[in-house]
Design goal:
Layout lengths: L2 E5 L4 H4 L8 H12 L4 E4 L11 H11 L4 E4 L9 H15 L3 E5 L6 H10 L6 H17 L17 E3 L4 H10 L2 E2 L6 H17 L8 E10 L2 H16 L3 H7 L2 E4 L1 H13 L4 E6 L4 H9 L7
Length: 301
């Protein structure tokens, strides 16, 4: 069985929506996704680089309206935040959800917008990757109550699982050694398989069970007639990131086309070892895309 989740369109609510970025429809969409049989809903993170709702606040509202669906960040940038405040926010969300929260984290790409976000918060951009690891360790210590106890208590004594994004050599090693899941913007099934092999080896070298690390992937899809769907994907990518689509397509996995084409591509990732898919819809018609993907969920159950 492979779990399938969707990325809530927090960015799209700004550039496709009513321009207020109203988060209420996003909560309704999460409820609908749960009712349709999806396993998880996710929210991205940024300040002014890619304006959107704050993910932990949004997912707290989702937690109060749902019962089964897992809730995750895809991905949160811990180095933008104070560790103790982040421990409290995440502990609260985890407690509200009854243990359904997954903390996906990453350092963040080297783009002018992300650099500006770090400058605004007074955080250290060059050391963002190592700082993310230090913060994750601090979160776990506070959740467990090693020296200081953070309240509310998390659903499990060790706190929610932490999944690491990224695919660089140091990230793969750190993921295998320290984290509960690997969560890359996988560019292809082949690169995913290779990266997962490195993560599993790092886990083995650290004396951990490599099977305890969830293999996940963040992928962007558009279902539709080939030319139209591809045009929508390109437009969406440029609105989302503010750079040419060609640049984005080299950095992350995306596909546009018929249901058969998209599903065959997703199946290749599953065959490469993906256990949990986070799907972002790369167009404006999120509801229509959600209905199409719901129609093939049975393939993964």
């Amino acid at each position: 069985m492979t779990k399938i989740g969707i990325l809530l369109p927090t960015r799209e609510a700004v550039f496709y929506g009513d321009k207020s970025g109203n988060p209420r429809p996003l909560v309704d969409l999460a409820v609908k996704a749960e009712e349709m049989g999806f396993d998880s809903v996710w929210a991205g993170d940024s300040l002014l680089a890619r304006p959107r709702s704050e993910p932990l606040a949004l997912l707290s509202a989702v937690a109060a309206r749902t019962k089964k669906v897992e809730l995750g960040t895809a991905v949160l940038l811990p180095a933008l935040r104070n560790a103790e405040q982040l421990a409290q926010s995440t502990a609260t969300l985890d407690a509200l959800s009854g243990g359904r929260f997954i903390l996906g984290i990453g350092g963040g790409p080297d783009t002018p917008g992300v650099r500006t976000d770090f400058k605004l918060t007074g955080m250290n951009f060059p050391k963002r990757a190592s700082q993310s690891v230090k913060i994750a360790e601090r979160l776990r210590s506070l959740w467990r109550g090693d020296k200081e106890q953070m309240y509310p208590l998390t659903h499990n004594s060790d706190g929610p699982p932490i999944w690491m994004g990224g695919a660089g050599p140091r990230t793969l090693e750190r993921t295998g050694r320290l984290f509960d899941g690997w969560f890359p913007l996988a560019t292809s099934p082949e690169t995913f398989r290779s990266g997962l092999r490195s993560v599993r080896q790092a886990a083995d070298d650290a004396g951990r069970s490599s099977d305890s690390i969830t293999a996940s992937a963040y992928l962007t899809v558009v279902f539709g007639e080939a030319d139209k769907a591809q045009a929508q994907l390109a437009e969406h990518s440029e609105l989302y990131y503010g750079v040419p689509y060609e640049q984005i397509s080299r950095a992350q996995g995306s596909i546009a086309g018929s249901v058969e084409k998209v599903v065959d591509w997703l199946d290749e990732f599953v065959s490469a070892g993906v256990e949990h898919l986070c799907i972002r819809f790369g167009c404006e018609d999120i509801s229509g895309q959600l209905e199409i993907l719901a129609g093939v969920l049975h393939r993964y159950k």
